[in-house]
Amino acid sequence: MRWSKIEPAKRTTGITYAIRDIVVLAEQIAKTGRKMLYLNIGDPNAYDHKTPKQIIEAVYKAMLENKNGYSPSSGIKIALEAIEEDARRKGIKNIQDIFITTGASEAIEICLTALLNPGENVLIPEPGYPLYSAIQSKLELVANPYYLDESNGWQPDIDDIKKKINQKTRAIVLINPNNPTGAVFSKENLEEIVKLALEHNLVVFADEIYDKLLFDNAKHTSIAGLSEELPCITFSGLSKNYIAPGFRIGWGIVSGPRNLLEDYIDAINKILRARLCANHPIQYAIPVALLGDQSHITQMNSTLERRRNIVLEKIAKIPGISLVEPHGAFYAFPSIDVKDDNHFAIELMKETGVVIVPGKGFGQKPGTSHFRIVILPPEEILKEAFDLIGDFYKMYKEKYE
After folding, report:
1. Residues 269 and 342 in one domain
2. pTM of the predicted model as reported, rounded to 2 decimal places
């Protein structure tokens, strides 16, 4: 019998994930024995940052107490209460529902799935985290990106957002602090987005997974805290602020008018029940993390700010590469004067072992080129990597452009 080749679903065609895709080539190069300098993965544990001991102990204790069966679909009571208390500290009121998921990624996918039908669209920032465009492809949504304004510190371009809203637009995504730019959005800018969301009956998806990682005395504003009338879902988790990405614990906080949100909340909970629950014993880390000792955050912010400054100093010495100063998260998104940032990233990795992510993997204005790096590595690695980038860039311009 002659068999036909198994064809994948068409919805997977547009799914890419530049952050991980670049690793495939990096692994091949590493096998040749070349020293690799990884500036690509937003995993603090891959460098010299460690999960706070008390968070680990909370999980271990729960496991020993046999909290190893299924939990309620939305999560355990003490964790949900801790998330609510943390949300209220951020000024979020009118909370209608909270649920715990397998990382913030699952919360995001569930909420998009519960809201959007094929052919509809959600406003997604460019540059922005590639997860959103991957989910967009899977749900067969129409792409509708809006730009962040590099000339204005990577703040959302309000005029561009206004132009992009149409009859099929259901929601707007905000990543604040931003991945990949490190921008922290101003209160004034967020207030303008609140007005647009209320005017056009849009749900705001507020991805605030980096909300405690801030530099230069920057202040983070939760958009959900600006209006009790705003239908909003605020996403966060343990992965970044609490240095535990492998725990795969995140959550969503639904806030806004109950009468507008009740059917949507019911749809979210249908999906939550269908996938059973998030990891049960690890949920016991949530109250310890959110309500316990926060000293590691102060220390981490100090370390990241110092490393951010090294990146700024190094880039300032490389003609053709410039950087809008990041004020949060642990990323930088330099602009680079090349025709193809993907080609530059690949050739850089082959020649020097420095691993960066090309800007086109995050979306960017046509005619511009960027690359993303993390500021997580130790100082000596950052210095070595940017010395190599500077030398390679000169050679690259002579050879290819």
Report:
1. no
2. 0.93
